[in-house]
Amino acid sequence: RQVPLAVVLPETTEQVASVLRFCHENGVRVVPRGAGTSLSGGALPLADAVVVGLMRMNRILAIDYADRLAAGINVVGISHFSTFLKNTESYRRDLRRAEYGDERDPEIAKFFEEIAPLNNAAQIRSPLFVAQGANDPRVPLSEADQIVDAVQGNGGDVWYLVFKDEGHGFA
């Protein structure tokens, strides 16, 4: 391990761009660093470099993949956590609430509404392939049905394959 020329902790993409521009213009090497431990040696500081720590950049504000994706694939996918928790097998419900959040809590319910693929189906512009087991005890068939209906209702192209004798996964 070496002491770098500097350690920079930007919080915005503009700050990252500014640091990279400065380093490029001045011939200074850059070592990008996430929040890991560097035990694998992938982001070890160099004496003649600036370490750019990206751990403060911890929020995704927007992603637009529409022009990069040829198609989407949904295999036994949850289209809305609230309907998933309502319709999943009862013996799994409390375990999933502990894992994903309890939809009966108003804050969690609001968050589920915001992130639900079902509520964002109008943004799905690439063709979508949905595969679901009809007897899935983990993710009910209704999760696939409702995303297919929503995307098709928005004029989207969907190929829907239901495995009538399968559960969560296919043989």
Please tell me about this protein's structure:
By secondary structure, this protein is α/β, with parallel strands linked by helices. It has helices at residues 13-25, 81-87, 90-100, 106-115, 141-153, and strands spanning 6-8, 29-33, 49-53, 72-75, 128-133, 158-163. The strands form 2 sheets. The protein has a 3-stranded parallel β-sheet with strand order 1-3-2, covered by helices on one side. Strands 4-5-6 form a 3-stranded parallel β-sheet, with helices on one face. Strand 5 (128-133), helix 5 (141-153) and strand 6 form a beta-alpha-beta unit. The chain is elongated and about 60 Å long. The relative contact order is 0.14. The model has no long low-confidence stretch (mean pLDDT 87).
Topology at a glance:
Layout: E1 6-8, H1 13-25, E2 29-33, E3 49-53, E4 72-75, H2 81-87, H3 90-100, H4 106-115, E5 128-133, H5 141-153, E6 158-163
Parallel strand pairs: 1-3, 2-3, 4-5, 5-6
Helix pairs in contact: 2-3
Which strands sit side by side, in order, in the main sheet? 1-3-2
| Residue windows where pLDDT falls under 50 for at least 5 positions | none
The computed structural class is alpha/beta
Number of strands: 6
Outline:
elongated
C-alpha-based Rg, rounded = 22 Å
* Alpha carbon gap, first and last residue: 50 Å
* Helix content percent band: 25-40%
Which band does the percent of strand residues land in? 15-25%
| Tally of individual helices | 5
The largest sheet is: 3 strands, parallel
Strand/helix succession = EHEEEHHHEHE
Mean pLDDT: 87
